[in-house]
């Protein structure tokens, strides 16, 4: 069974917490970390700089599509970042934690 980190960003801490609590309560993720960041990006031919909240979501690889659907349902951005990062190494204890806390 493979584990992944899914990364997304939100424009507000409240939106990020709502997504995090939803993913945890539905057992789609075992843990979601929130971190305040500053993002510089190109949008509609303009360079933008915004404060965002980064969500680092730990879950099973097989749950990616369900996590993605839930993010898209709850997210306010037109094109939210939803990136899956494969975990190549993980401690046995943390692997067990993810398994026990996801569907």
Characterise the protein shown here:
The chain is an alpha+beta fold. It has one domain (3-100): Alpha-Beta Plaits (2-Layer Sandwich). It has helices at 13-25, 64-74, 92-100; strands at 3-10, 31-43, 46-60, 83-86. The chain has a 4-stranded antiparallel β-sheet with strand order 2-3-1-4. Helix 1 runs antiparallel to helix 2. The two termini are 13 Å apart.
From the 3D structure, determine the CATH topology.
Alpha-Beta Plaits
Q: Strand count, sense and closure of the main sheet?
A: 4 strands, antiparallel
Mean pLDDT across all residues, rounded?
Answer: 97
- Architecture (CATH level 2) name: 2-Layer Sandwich
Q: How would you spell out the order of helices and strands?
A: EHEEHEH
Unreliable spans are: none
Count of separate structural domains: 1
Helix content: 25-40%
Name of the level-1 CATH class? Alpha Beta
**Overall 3D form:** elongated
Give the end-to-end Cα distance, rounded to a whole number of Å.
Answer: 13 Å
Task: Figure out the total of helices.
Answer: 3
* Beta-strand content: 35-45%
Rg over CA atoms: 14 Å
**Got a strand count?**
4
Estimated structural class = alpha+beta
Strand order in the sheet with the most strands: 2-3-1-4
């Amino acid at each position: 069974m493979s584990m992944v980190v899914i990364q997304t960003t939100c424009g507000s801490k409240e939106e990020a917490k709502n997504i995090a609590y939803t993913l945890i309560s539905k057992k789609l993720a075992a843990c979601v970390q929130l971190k305040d960041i500053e993002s510089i990006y190109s949008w509609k031919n303009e360079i933008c700089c915004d404060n965002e909240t980064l969500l680092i979501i730990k879950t099973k690889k097989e749950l990616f599509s369900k996590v993605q659907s839930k993010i898209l349902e709850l997210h306010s951005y037109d094109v939210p970042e939803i990136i899956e990062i494969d975990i190549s190494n993980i401690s046995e204890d943390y692997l067990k934690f993810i398994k026990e806390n996801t569907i």
